[in-house]
Design brief:
Blueprint: H1 9-13, E1 20-23, E2 26-29, H2 35-47, H3 49-52, E3 60-67, E4 77-84, E5 102-106, H4 112-125, E6 130-135, E7 140-147, E8 150-158, H5 175-179
Parallel strand pairs: 5-6
Antiparallel strand pairs: 1-2, 3-4, 4-5, 6-7, 7-8
């Protein structure tokens, strides 16, 4: 019986293709994002911009396509990940070796197992406090908070209303805009009809 050789972060970095990641010792190709995936990733990042503009202990680095080297055989690329600047004062070159404070995965067809099982288990082992999952087709966001050694669901939301979601609950996120491209609650402007 021949032993299976697990790929390492070093092996990953030798690959010329940037659309790969290292999951459980296997270098896997990431799917080509669909338009709704790109929209959600961009609008979620934009909605959280207030946190990236802050310097000092309250500021965040919020990065799209963030490669994190958690272990020698684990270097996923998260759709969105955030680090408090108090923990990560400067962005390093290459994969980040410090676990993030928050991760958000946009579940892609064919990657549901990775996003809903493999990644949460990895994040739990490394003490990542917050993990969000977004299902574009269902227009749904599920937010998790680490409680002890496991994640607990703190919010299950859809696109129909704005919400405050930890760890970014200092602001109201417009989930309609993020998930669908339409504001969740339209305000009546001057000259609009209605009683």
């Amino acid at each position: 019986m021949q032993a299976i050789k697990l790929a390492t972060v070093h092996d990953l970095l030798q690959r010329p293709d940037e659309r790969v990641e290292l999951i459980n010792g296997e270098i896997v190709h990431r799917t080509l994002p669909r338009p709704e995936h790109g929209w959600i990733q961009g609008t979620a990042r934009a909605e959280l911009d207030a946190f990236t503009c802050r310097s000092g202990p309250d500021g965040w680095w919020i990065i799209t396509e963030a490669s994190v080297a958690y272990e020698p055989h684990q270097c996923p690329t998260h759709d969105l990940a955030g680090w408090r600047r108090s923990r990560l004062p400067r962005l390093p070159e290459g994969p980040i070796e410090l676990p993030p404070d928050w991760v958000c995965e946009i579940v892609s067809p064919g990657h549901g197992r990775k996003d809903t099982r493999d990644i949460p288990l990895l994040l739990q082992r490394h003490g990542v406090p917050f993990y969000w999952l977004i299902w574009p087709e269902e227009r749904r966001l599920v937010a998790h908070r680490r409680d002890g050694d496991s994640y607990q669901v703190v919010a299950t939301l859809d696109h129909t209303q704005p919400a405050r979601i930890p760890p970014f609950d200092a602001i109201i996120l417009d989930l309609g805009y993020i998930l669908v491209g339409e504001p969740a609650v339209r305000e009546k402007g001057p000259g609009s009809s209605g009683s």
